[in-house]
Structures are given as C-alpha cells and as structure tokens.
Design goal:
Elements lengths: L2 H18 L22 H8 L13 E13 L7 E11 L4 E13 L22 E15 L12 E19 L5 E3 L10 E3 L4 E18 L2 E11 L18 E13 L16 H8 L2 H6 L71 H23 L12 E3 L9 H16 L4 E6 L5 H20 L8 E5 L8 E7 L21
Parallel strand pairs: 12-13
Antiparallel strand pairs: 1-2, 1-10, 2-3, 3-4, 4-5, 5-6, 5-8, 7-8, 8-9, 9-10, 11-14, 12-14
Length: 516
C-alpha cells in the first residue's frame, strides 16, 4: 500500500471519528462537595476543605480506561516491509489531569517483500546474511506514560478532543520465519546472531527490550467511550526483526504501528468521575468565580455585639470595651489626645504632645504651672457643686449612651440615607432627654484640607438635626480633635457639659457642598 493510500485511510478515519464526537458534557461540576467520589485516604482533606480550613479540594476517584486497538504495522529494517496487522489491549489510569499510566499487551504479524537485487538472496534462508521474504510475529508487553496536552483550558470547559504524547518501555517476543526458494517458510534461529538476547520457545523467539515513543488523538463520544488514533514507534537495539543483517547499514530494526483505539471507561458513576485527563482542572475555579457555592456554603452572617458598643464583633477591634464607654467606628474606646490612655481612664483628656509620655492615668510629664493648678482646683470645686446639684435634683443628668457614629464617604460631606436614618434616631433620643446635649466630634488629620472636611461634616450633622428635626442649636457642641480617630467618621456623644455650637471654619476657601 502506498503512502498516498495511507494518507487517504487516515483522513477517512479522522472524518468518521470527528462526526461521532458530538456529545456535550457538563463542564461545571460540583464534585468537590460529593464525598462519595472521594477516596478514604483523601477524606481528611475533603473535610478540611468543606470547613474552609484548607484551600484545595480533595482529588476525586476516577474511572479506569480499558482500550482495544486494531491497526496496521510495519517493520523498519533492511528489507521492505508490507503492511501487517496489529492488535493491542490496555488499561489506562490517570495520575492527575495531565499524566497517566497505561500497561499494555500487543500482537503483530508482518510480512516482508522480496529483497532488492543488490541484496544477497542466495543460500540458506536461515542464515543471517541471506535476505529473503519474511514473516515476523511479535507479542509485546510494557507500560507507557501518557501526557495529555490540552486538558487544561482557560476559555472553554472539558475537551472533546484529547491530544497526547507517550513514552514507555517494554519487551517484545519476535518469531521470524524466512521464505525459501521453494515457497515454504523456514524458522530463523536468533541464536546464530551476535546480538546479546534472551530466547524462549525452544530458542525460536527472541525477547527484545524496546523503548516506545508516540503521539495520539482521542475523540470523546460519551463519558463512557472515546475513539482514538495513535502512532507508536518501538525502538530496539536488535537488527533481525526481518531476519537479515546488512553489512552496509548499521541501523537497528524497529516496529511502527498505526492503531484505531476503542476506549471504554469502567467504574461506577456513583463513586467515580470520568478519567481526569478528560476533565479541565480549571472547571472548579471558574465555576466558583461565577457562582461561589463553596464560599456561600461557609459564609455565616454574624451580628453579635458582645460589649454592646454598637459595633458588631466581626468588625470590633476592641470587643471587650466596658459598658457605656464611647467608641469610634472600629469599636475602640475614644482617646482624644492620642496618648494611649482611653478617655474613660484619662485624667488629662487633652495632654499636649510635648508632655508625652504620660503615666497610667493619662497625665503628661510636664510640670503643672501655677495658673493651671489654680484652675484645676477651681474646676474640682465646680464639679463638686455640680454633683451636689445633681443629687438635689436641681441639675439634670444625661443618660444618652451608645449614640451612633456617622461615617462619610471619602472626600464627601453629604449625608447618605443611612446616615439620615441614624440621625433621626438620635433626634428621638434628644427629644426624650431634654437635659442632654450632644457633642459632635470630628477627627481631622493634621492638614487644612482634612480639617475643613471634618468641619463641613460636623456642620452638616448639626444643620440636619436643627433644620430637619427641629432640635435647638444650643443643644450641640461643635468639636473636633487632632486626629485620634477615623477622619471619615464623626462621633456623637451625649453630655451635660457646655461648649460652642459653632466655630470658625479653619479653611473657608476649601469649604465643600453639603447635601441631605
């Protein structure tokens, strides 16, 4: 058969297989959550992954592929080979999505042509230096390693066509008969060669080690069946597969086979997935990006607030703040002067930085001046008077605790709808507690732009409560500190202390637009 006829045969077979490969498989699988498809040795990984304690899903059990091959074979030797027949039986098991192992058994029977005129064809046909038409029968045993080249894909799902390369080792038993001039075949005795080899079958069959190299393509018909075409070369270090050694050529003989493969996937669908070399390993990644079932399965909304400061535990950086202590938007007790001592423990709320470090009570290291000492003593006396008035019922007290903090968008001073709802609740508390004032406290950074932005935000809150809720302006204290808190957050604190309800803008030329 000519090379042209080989090409036509291959094209016809490819066309037939392509027409059969029409099955569509489900690319988006949820194998990661099916414990029945996970081997016992991988069950611990499956459990850890299901709990979000390990980032990789467990490898599923997959099916074995049992293959039957039928095709044509030729011997590459000193005498031209006719096309012979070959058959094979194999069992393939994937190691992962790319690599797999395939033990095999093979059989071939090949006939050789009449030798060329320039080759010695006279004499005893059993001799190694006499070229005659031959008949070679081989039986092979070995194992091939296979690498699938297109299993992993970024823009499509599972492949419907699998292209692969292979390499392996094995042995073949070669029985060679040479045709005598009378037309009968005479057994070739491999022991008369100088080749180091093992023989069996009463010395009639040479046992030859081989190295296999090949390439193939398979077409998926269903999750149980695929059809493939494969070309495999078996390389030997033996020169008598055709029963002749040429003194001119120093090359060894080899075996080349083209096979049509019928491959069947065996195993329970309930316990195994299709062979991994047919499954795109990116399926899980992309399916989770599109619809994160695994993430949603383990996502639990937690709204617990153990310390009752208004900040849920999952966002609270200080989850054990004492009851009644004012906190910032991250749940931390306020520290107005940034000295590391929270306000509720600080006996000197606004310590100057040059007086740092402070003691455990928040008092700076600067010596107290005479005027400050006198002022402190007067304040202490006034506090005692106020406490006495409170006890007598003349002075009121404020019970508004845990007022919310108002968080603005970065760069903005406009109140969102959520902010307005929070302020509506504040207005209700103020109406229920007429003896209370509210300190509106901003936390600007140490630059004019941030100070003006904090001013605008404090001003927006006070104006909303005055103009929209009818709260008297003199019930607010307009305040901002030196950046001890989040610059986007304005804190509200219930108080009975006195203070200004407005202050001059620090940078009027940077004043922004307010909306509510």
């Amino acid at each position: 058969m000519s090379n042209k006829n080989y090409s036509l045969l291959l094209v016809s077979v490819f066309t037939l297989i392509s027409s059969l490969s029409i099955a569509q498989m489900s690319d988006v699988t949820k194998q990661w959550k099916d414990s029945s498809k996970v081997a016992t040795k991988n069950s611990a990984q499956f459990t850890e992954f299901s709990k979000n304690a390990y980032i990789y899903p467990a490898k599923p059990r997959d099916m074995w592929e049992i293959g039957v091959g039928l095709g044509i074979a030729r011997i590459g030797g000193d005498i031209n080979s006719n096309v012979g027949l070959t058959a094979s039986l194999s069992a393939r098991k994937s190691l992962g999505h790319v690599f797999s192992l395939r033990p095999y058994l093979s059989y071939a029977k090949i006939y050789g042509d009449e030798p060329a005129n320039n080759i010695n064809g006279a004499g005893n046909p059993a001799a190694t230096n006499v070229a005659r038409p031959y008949k070679t029968t081989t039986m092979g045993l070995g194992i091939d390693g296979i690498a699938s080249l297109n299993t992993s894909r970024n823009y499509k799902g599972n492949p419907k066509v699998n292209i692969y390369v292979l390499g392996g080792i094995g042995v073949i038993g070669a029985n060679v008969e040479k045709k005598a001039t009378n037309g009968t075949y005479v057994q070739f005795d491999p022991s008369v060669t100088n080749a180091p080899l093992t023989t069996i079958n009463d010395g009639k069959t040479a046992v030859i080690p081989v190295i296999n190299l090949g390439i193939g393509i398979a077409f998926r018909v269903s999750d149980r069946f695929n059809i493939g075409l494969e070309n495999k070369n078996s390389i030997t270090s033996y020169d008598y597969l055709d029963g002749f050694h040429s003194s001119v050529s120093n090359t060894f003989d080899g075996l080349n086979a083209y096979t049509l493969r019928l491959n069947f996937n065996v195993g329970s669908r309930d316990k195994r997935v299709e062979p991994l070399n047919w499954i795109n390993p990116n399926n899980y990644v992309y399916s989770e990006l599109n619809e994160p079932d695994h993430l949603k399965k383990n996502l639990k909304v937690k709204l617990d607030d153990a310390d009752g400061d208004g900040i849920t535990d999952q966002f609270d950086l200080e989850p054990n703040t004492p009851a009644g202590v004012a906190v910032d938007s991250r749940g931390r007790a306020l520290d107005s002067d940034g000295d590391g001592v929270p306000d509720y423990k600080d006996k000197e709320l606004l310590t100057r930085q040059e007086c740092f470090p402070v003691n455990t009570e928040g008092v700076g290291s600067c010596p107290e001046s005479a005027c400050c000492k006198e002022s402190r003593e007067k304040i202490t006396e006034l506090q005692k008077v106020v406490e006495g008035l409170k006890e007598s019922g003349i002075a009121g007290s404020c019970s508004m605790n845990n007022l919310p903090s108002i968080v603005f968008k970065s760069g903005g001073a406009s109140l969102s709808r959520d902010n307005m709802r929070l302020l509506d609740a504040v207005a209700t508390q103020m109406k229920d507690n007429p003896s209370c004032k509210v300190k509106v406290l901003g936390h600007p950074e140490a630059n004019k732009s941030s100070q003006q932005k904090s001013y605008d935000r404090v001003d927006a809150i006070i104006k909303y409560l005055v103009e929209k809720q009818g709260i008297s302006e003199n019930r607010f204290i307009f305040a901002y500190d030196s950046g001890s808190g989040d610059s986007k957050t304005i804190d509200l604190q219930g108080t009975t202390e006195a203070g200004p309800n407005t202050v001059p803008a620090p940078a009027p030329h940077l004043k922004g637009k307010q909306n509510y």
